[in-house]
Amino acid sequence: MDLIQKLQEQYIQEFSNNVPLDEFLLNVIVTAILVALLRLFYIHFGNAISNRRRFANNFLPLALGTLLIIMIVKSSIALSLGLVGALSIVRYRAAIKDPEELTYLFIAIGLGLAGGANQPILAIVAFAVILGILYLSKLLGRQQVFRQENRLFVNIQTDQEDVEAIAGILAQHLPYVELKRMDTLEQGMDLSFVCRAKELGDIARLKKAMQELSPATRLSVIDQPDLIV
Question: Most buried among 19, 24, 35, 203, by the most CB within 10 A?
Fold first, then answer.
């Protein structure tokens, strides 16, 4: 029992000397709150076509992981050099489909760096300024660019392999169809189109036609009013 108590006192004392507990908790809480606000901002104001809600779930672990690394290495040159060596053999191959996604990842990393460096005030001020500028730029962009209506991003996953037949079905129900991306699957294809629709009934009829083409066909339609077609 004495040994356990001695070890606990030793580790707690070492932790307190390197990183004061109150500072650690404050930085973690501030970083978590700021990243949660960043997540909400990205979900509501982001322009990425991918699932923004799912992608934004990566912000919190990324920021807190960065905070933890900086807090560990900032008090030891040996640990920082070891981290450089460890990261030099690690290769990240995350698929970033949109540059905007990478931008928000850097903001999340920046918040983690500020928290790990014990700069919560700097993190709060910088975060408020950055999001304020991003929000104003989006407002100005909406005023300067003519807002297009009835513009759609259509993704089709199907076990069929006749691209012309699928494009023909789209052309029958939508006044404008343009193929933007085609990926071959083990069985079938994954197709991405930029389209224009006149009314909601066009989408309903398109859905029915795709189901008649193949029961395995999956149709995803995303409203993209800022697309110029």
Answer: 35
Of 224, 28, 221, 198, give the one whose Cα is nearest residue 111. 28
Average pLDDT, rounded, for the chain: 79
CA-based angle 77:81:85, to the nearest 5?
Answer: 165
Burial (CB count <10 Å: 0-12, 13-18, 19+), residue 104: buried
State pTM to two decimals.
Answer: 0.55
Distance CA 157, CA 136 (A): 37
Overall average pLDDT of the 16-39 stretch = 85
Band (195; pLDDT cuts 50, 70, 90): confident
Query: Which of helix, strand or coil describes residue 221?
Result: strand
Assess contact for 129 and 114: CB atoms under 8 A. Answer: no
Q: Please state, in angstroms and rounded to a whole number, the distance separating the CA atoms of residues 204 and 219.
A: 11
Token pair 């809600």 in the structure block, residue: 53
